[in-house]
């Protein structure tokens, strides 16, 4: 496909071949000293999506913004070489949770704007608490992360390994999660069921 | 530079996302937005787990990865029950605004 473009295409192939073998960012990542620029792009995307999802006025816009945040997080998981978790994130969050949120918005007529504004009366206190929590977390990270030894090599873990671990060492948690999901599904249906049906 | 080590960079992003989610859960009036804030906080914790798995000493043991996968499953269950509760409350009180739901106030 690249070659069909002629001279430009072959230049792209040469460029890719050169940087595929001598990727300076990958070398730096292997040393464990440097973050790739992709990380910064994804971090800004995720944080912007998260910020938009809690500040926008219309609930439907919030649902769209939280989709962006979830997608950015999935891409961050892929950037961390956790492919299975990344795709599970896309399937579960973008595929299921956002759809549930949109359904709930539509069922509760959340698209109507409240007259009193979207933030509660005590919003400065909430903002202060959140800022304090971030200050503590950031301080703890910056203080302690130098003491943690860091593995730079990319872990050689395949989905096959994950599957074997799930039915081997982690089989009991897997069963418990299956039970929890069943109970949650039944519970959600019972909770959201119409009141008259229950009283009969 | 602050984000000089990859682990610190990911942890700081997760901390910031957690704070954003907490701010959303504490300041918004709509119950669905509170749930979105909680989801953001859970996701920030997942990012921490995966980052520690990636840069920790024994990634082949898969502990952090498994923790994140189970956490995603539990978060999905929580979202289903939470939104069911919101719909149920809306049916009772005809509103999803948390300020107006004060029936249990003493």
From TrEMBL, chain A:
GO terms for molecular function: NADH dehydrogenase (ubiquinone) activity; quinone binding. It comes from the Bacteria. InterPro entries: NADH_UbQ/plastoQ_OxRdtase_su6, Nuo/plastoQ_OxRdtase_6_NuoJ. It is found in: Cell membrane. Pfam families: Oxidored_q3 (PF00499). Its EC number is 7.1.1.-. It catalyses: a quinone + NADH + 5 H(+)(in) = a quinol + NAD(+) + 4 H(+)(out). Keywords: Cell membrane, Membrane, NAD, Quinone, Transmembrane, Transmembrane helix, Ubiquinone. It is a multi-pass membrane protein. Its main location: membrane. The chain crosses the membrane at residues 34-52, 58-78, 90-110, 122-142, 170-193. One of its GO terms (cellular component) is plasma membrane. NDH-1 shuttles electrons from NADH, via FMN and iron-sulfur (Fe-S) centers, to quinones in the respiratory chain. Couples the redox reaction to proton translocation (for every two electrons transferred, four hydrogen ions are translocated across the cytoplasmic membrane), and thus conserves the redox energy in a proton gradient. Belongs to the complex I subunit 6 family. This is NADH-quinone oxidoreductase subunit J. It comes from Candidatus Sulfuritelmatomonas gaucii.
From TrEMBL, chain B:
One of its GO terms (molecular function) is quinone binding. The keyword Flavoprotein does not apply. The chain crosses the membrane at residues 6-25, 32-53, 65-90. It catalyses: a quinone + NADH + 5 H(+)(in) = a quinol + NAD(+) + 4 H(+)(out). The keyword DNA repair does not apply. Pfam families: Oxidored_q2 (PF00420). It comes from the Bacteria. Keywords: Cell membrane, Membrane, NAD, Oxidoreductase, Quinone, Translocase, Transmembrane, Transmembrane helix, Transport, Ubiquinone. One of its GO terms (biological process) is ATP synthesis coupled electron transport. Its EC number is 7.1.1.-. It is an enzyme of class 7 (translocase). It is found in: Cell membrane; Membrane. GO terms for cellular component: NADH dehydrogenase complex; plasma membrane. It is a multi-pass membrane protein. NDH-1 is composed of 14 different subunits. Subunits NuoA, H, J, K, L, M, N constitute the membrane sector of the complex. PANTHER family: NADH-UBIQUINONE OXIDOREDUCTASE CHAIN 4L (PTHR11434:SF16), NADH-UBIQUINONE OXIDOREDUCTASE SUBUNIT ND4L (PTHR11434). NDH-1 shuttles electrons from NADH, via FMN and iron-sulfur (Fe-S) centers, to quinones in the respiratory chain. The immediate electron acceptor for the enzyme in this species is believed to be ubiquinone. Couples the redox reaction to proton translocation (for every two electrons transferred, four hydrogen ions are translocated across the cytoplasmic membrane), and thus conserves the redox energy in a proton gradient. Belongs to the complex I subunit 4L family. This is NADH-quinone oxidoreductase subunit K.
